Amino acid sequence: MSRSAMTKTLLLAMAAALLAPAAAAASAPTPTEILAAAPAEDWARIDPADLLVIDLTKGGRVVIALADAFAPVHLANIRLLARSGWFDGVSVVRVQDNYVVQWGVPNEAPKPLPPGIVKPAPAEYERPARGLAFTSLAYSDSFAPIVGYSGGFPVAQRGGQAWLAHCYGMVGVARDIAPDTGTGQELYTVIGQAPRALDRNIAVVGRIVAGMELLTALPRGTADLGFYAQPVQRTGIAHIRLASDLPIEQRPAIEWLRPESGGFKAWVHARANRQDAFYGRPAGAIDLCNALPPVRSIP
Amino acid sequence: MSRSAMTKTLLLAMAAALLAPAAAAASAPTPTEILAAAPAEDWARIDPADLLVIDLTKGGRVVIALADAFAPVHLANIRLLARSGWFDGVSVVRVQDNYVVQWGVPNEAPKPLPPGIVKPAPAEYERPARGLAFTSLAYSDSFAPIVGYSGGFPVAQRGGQAWLAHCYGMVGVARDIAPDTGTGQELYTVIGQAPRALDRNIAVVGRIVAGMELLTALPRGTADLGFYAQPVQRTGIAHIRLASDLPIEQRPAIEWLRPESGGFKAWVHARANRQDAFYGRPAGAIDLCNALPPVRSIP
Fold first, then answer.
1. Is there a contact between B100 and B189 (Cβ–Cβ < 8 Å)?
2. Less CB within 10 Å around the terminal CB: N or C of chain A?
3. Which residues of A touch B178 (CB under 8 A)?
């Protein structure tokens, strides 16, 4: 649906609402239609320098958007590991249902880190809210008094501090007990109900923006914490590279809806207050992790 | 850990807290330890008449606990379909990432329903809260003023009405546009961040209590809404039966933690306020769908 068609639909719906609320409700645009009608300027292309590309040995590509504003030292480590080729040959070692998929070097085969890795990195678990681009979500959250989005990332705030929320598809740095903060050599992504208790306890470094289904559909591990009991069950990772280090024709091109845009606001409102035909009872609410800024590939 | 060992640990932790808060925090029992120490009377065995058993053609079993207190007509339909063998040979037709796995008869091969199916069933999307066994969760929810648990099920309430919440692993009845309410011949389960906007718009009939990982690890469908593009991609279902209709030695034996028990309260509190060594910053909160009453198989 084009933008002008969309506007016409909205106007017709508003007019109809005055005459016949039920009929108007049945013809209200769906969130998907609102998304399709959002103008090009509502979308922001993600810089290839902020995209981490994971190519699986068996084929298939996962792409992570990196959140530099939150964990710069951990991200410098991750970039160094990617550029040095250190990640080549790591594997998915853990898939715990309704929790996380984790990848790195198996415990039985440690691999020396390249020079320049900061260890321990500072505990980059939160940062000052001041100076952060932030758009508030106009609905309440169970975990924090203020929630919203910074770029395509979900953010929570309290007392002037801001942190990335552990929503589905967010990527964090696995670590041992404090004072360890993790080096970035082992990462995980959330594959279930947001485990927000991890917020502010771990460095969150990004969000998966393509290929999530390649990780979520992996068999669950049967050892403790969802680790694979047998090495043969692990999914191999051929390479992890920054998109900006790939030849131009191999770089993924991905954009996400700006949280400050009119399109995003309309989309959130429609998802929180479903008026399209399937829904009889709009929720009147939406959760931070149910309204992550939509992502799409650029042809 | 035995119950007496657990009590000793708690007492030691309480004593230590007076002397050295940090050391006490490091030795606090984990939610897993609390669960292991819960006495037998904190657990309730699920009646085999309330367990729906799905046996996959390729092997593997999924078990659903049925929520009779919420959707009795839909559940009478589902029981009739199970008892008549109607479900034998259906398949998983849809896997949409971060949303649902759905099973039933493919659209291209409709199958007549047995006599006795109520169609349309009443819209059993909520019920009076009065008369419902209910234990409140002492933390706030983004979607409803009152949330908690009834047996092993997550429940939300507003204005004297109660409904089952669309948490990970909850099972609902697929339907078309109203006035259709679904017959029970096609069911789905939630495999991502709780899509609570579906609450009160669909008949929710149960919760998966075993074998969830057999569904969540299925390849995502590539057609619209995650339907499989090719019939060969579907996962076959050999049989769906009530556990009470199986020979005794084939029945699953499953129990869940009573939400009104001391063990459940301690487990929720520990999960919301993590004091074990990994956590430096307890959330002080927990989400309804992060605290579903734990389930375990009885040997």
1. yes
2. C
3. 277-278, 280
B274 touches chain A (CB under 8 A): yes
- Residue among A178, A193, A216 whose CB faces B168 most closely: A193
How far apart, in whole angstroms, are the C-alpha atoms of residue A43 and residue A260? 10
- Calpha distance A237→A81 (Å, rounded): 14
* Residue A190, min C-alpha distance to chain B (Å): 10
Burial, A167: exposed, middle or buried (Cβ in 10 Å; 0-12, 13-18, 19+)?
A: buried
**A:158-177 residues touching chain B, CB 8 A cutoff:** 167-169, 177
Q: Is the pLDDT of residue B51 over 70?
A: yes
Question: What CA–CA distance (Å, rounded) separates A106 from A237?
Answer: 12
| pLDDT tens string B224-256 | 999 999 999 999 999 999 999 999 999 999 999
Which of A197, A213, A220 minimises the CB distance to B220? A213
Instruction: Work out the percent of chain B whose per-residue pLDDT is above 70.
Output: 91
Q: B122-162 pLDDT, tens per residue? A: 999 999 999 999 999 999 999 999 999 999 999 999 999 99
Q: Which of A177, A225, A286, A287 to mutate to test the interface with B (most CBs of B within 10 A)?
A: A287
Cα A299 to Cα B193: distance, rounded to the nearest angstrom: 28
Residues A184, A117: Cα–Cα separation, whole Å = 9
| CA–CA separation, B181 and B201 (whole Å) | 9
Q: Could you tell me the pTM of the whole model?
A: 0.91
- Looking at the predicted structure, is the pLDDT value of residue A13 above 70? no
β-pairing verdict for B204-210 and B170-173: antiparallel
Separation between Cα atoms, residue B145 and residue B158, nearest integer Å: 6
Q: Check whether B164 has a pLDDT greater than 90.
A: yes
CB contact under 8 A, A98 and B212: yes
Q: For A274-293, what is each residue's pLDDT tens digit?
A: 998 899 999 999 999 999 99
**CA dist B50 → B60, B67, B76, B252, B260 (Å):** 20, 8, 11, 11, 20
Q: Do B281 and A200 touch (CB under 8 A)?
A: yes
Instruction: Please say if the pLDDT value at position B3 is more than 90.
Output: no
Assembly ipTM: 0.90
pLDDT for res B182: 96
User: Does A248 touch chain B if contact means CB atoms closer than 8 Å?
Assistant: no
Average pLDDT over residues B32-50: 97
Mutant choice from B273, B281, B295 vs A, greatest count of A C-beta within 10 A = B281
| DSSP summary character for residue B106 | -
